[in-house]
Amino acid sequence: LTHSSYANESKNKKIVSNERLEFLGDAVLEMVVSEHIYKNSSCFTEGEMTKFRANIVCERSLAKCAKNINIGEYLLLGKGEENSGGRERVSILSDAIEALIGAVYMDGGLENAKAFILRQLGQTITRVVNGNAFTDYKSRLQEIIQKTSERVIVYEIIEENGPDHSKEFVSQVRIDGKVLGSGCGKSKKEAEQIAAKHSLELIDILNI
């Protein structure tokens, strides 16, 4: 893993940095993470999935992965970067893991690159997606409605799809018989939370 500072200082002009591999690795990383989010977060909008991906592939997240596998120890750095703590610098570490992903892709193909990415970032993906999915939108909706009225919020599961080991539930939120929002999730609780979230987004539009 050769940083540009090392390549620039080297007398051997055949030594090149890993910037081209970073370019490739960045593209592979975004594709794999995007696919994983898409397949495992069927209830979220394009905008929400974009935010998830940005949080997952940010410099801080990638640098943490790089530290977990001690990439810093294997970097070739120029003297200036070495002396200024480049082995611990977030930007350098995140670039290095992108280069490593690019190298894995070139050497072993997409499936191996995918396995590597999900092994390193799987927990981060779960934390980001589930952390958003289980924000207590139901309580927030209840607070807003009760500020202006005593109307009762009713949640109803209207659909159950898929096999027993991988069900997907669809929930509706009703107030005074009016459907306020709906949402789907891998559990009844998650579906209700997503329905409440969508209801919060529609409150101003429906003027309730």
Describe the protein in words.
- This protein has 208 residues and is an alpha+beta fold.
- The protein has two domains: 4-133, Ribonuclease iii, N-terminal Endonuclease Domain, Chain A (Orthogonal Bundle); 137-206, Double Stranded RNA Binding Domain.
- Helix content is 62%, strand content 12%.
- The protein has eight helices and three strands.
- It has helices at residues 4-9, 19-40, 46-56, 59-68, 79-83, 90-133, 137-148, 188-206; strands spanning 153-161, 168-175, 178-185.
- A three-stranded antiparallel sheet has the order 1-2-3, with helices on one face.
- Strand 2 and strand 3 (178-185) form a beta hairpin.
- Helix 2 packs across helix 3 (46-56), helix 3 (46-56) crosses helix 6 (90-133) and helix 4 (59-68) packs across helix 6.
- The longest helix has 44 residues, at 90-133.
- The model has no long low-confidence stretch (mean pLDDT 86).
Question: Going across the major beta sheet, what is the strand order?
Answer: 1-2-3
What's the count of strands?
3
What's the gyration radius in Å?
23 Å
Judging from the principal axes of the Cα atoms, what is the shape? elongated
Number of helices in the DSSP assignment: 8
Order of helices and strands: HHHHHHHEEEH
Distance between the termini: 58 Å
> How many discrete structural domains?
2
